[in-house]
Amino acid sequence: MKSEIIKKIFTNFKFDYYLISAPNINFFNKFIFLLRKYHSILLNKRKIKYLGNYFYYDNRFSPAILENYPKEIHDINKKINLSKIKNVLDVGANIGQFSYTLKSMYPNLCIYSFEPNKEIYPILFKNASNFKNLNTYNFGLGNKTKIRDFYFSQTASAEGSLYPENMNQNYVRKDIKKTKVKIIKLTPKIMKKLSIPKKIDFVKIDVEGAEMDVLKSLKFIDFDYLYIEVSIKRKSGGNLNTIKEFLKKEKGVEPILLHYYLPDKDSPCANAIFSLKK
Asked: Measuring CA to CA, which residue among 152, 229, 138 is closest to residue 184?
């Protein structure tokens, strides 16, 4: 228990560092957000002013996690010119941390965000309402359309997963809930109904072990870039080679690895960016 508390404190200060070192936010806004962050955590609030609008969240420490996203977007932009991207598929959106930050920095983007957890989806919807062309859907993507069990912690909903064994990889979670979620396969008919284009510039997948199922659902979507969690220690999900081979076989192009980042040596997953441009 003591080691977990120390780890959480260290992680909090690490996120402070990420925000301070992010070059795409000016110093004044960084300083103001740090003040707001600690104020919100101390008073256990559920909304915070972030990048010009109010961001709503579901647990006390979400403002700390938000600090990571400006740097993450900056790092992606170093590999991909995001100003030339038109549309984005965000699979595993949670409460909208990634989509909200990306849309705040690149307002011309059209984003399609998917989150299956019906208990937190209203927060995603509320955060997306700050923007035009940030579309949200309350279901996940997979190889088959069906109802599945979904596991999440009310203190860490971003780690929600279809696989219960993935719930205790970063910390031991004692408040795990099970709920039913809808998973759909993106057929041309469903894509037309949801107004999802056949051509997507940038796909982001963060689904805590269900990455390969999501990739199989994108059979009818042509995309140029893929930003995906790569499993290292998970029992499910795809490792780097599995994902590369799948993309080569299914998309008919040799995927180029543009970026690979392992947060720390104990992390159950890494982040990878692939280019599939022909």
From this structure: 138
What is the domain-level CATH number for residue 117? 3.40.50.150
Cα 182 to Cα 117: distance, rounded to the nearest angstrom: 9
The whole-model pTM stands at 0.94
Residue 195 backbone class (left: φ over 0; alpha: ψ -120 to 50; beta: rest) = left
pLDDT at residue 90 tops 80: yes
**Enclosing domain of residue 39:** 2-275
Closest C-alpha to 255, from 272, 234, 230? 272
**If residue 87 lies in a helix (H) or strand (E), which one and from where to where?**
strand 87-91
Residues 221-276 have pLDDT tens digits of 999 999 999 988 776 778 999 999 999 999 999 999 999 998 877 788 899 999 99
Instruction: State pLDDT tens for residues 144-158.
Output: 999 999 999 887 888
How is 19-70 classified by DSSP, letter by letter?
Answer: HHH-TTS-HHHHHHHHHHHHHHHHTT-SEEEETTEEEE-SSTTHHHHHTTHH
Q: Which two tokens stand for residue 176?
A: 């795990």
Map tokens 């208990």 to a residue.
Answer: 119
Domains in the chain, number: 1
* DSSP bridge pairs for 205: 91, 228
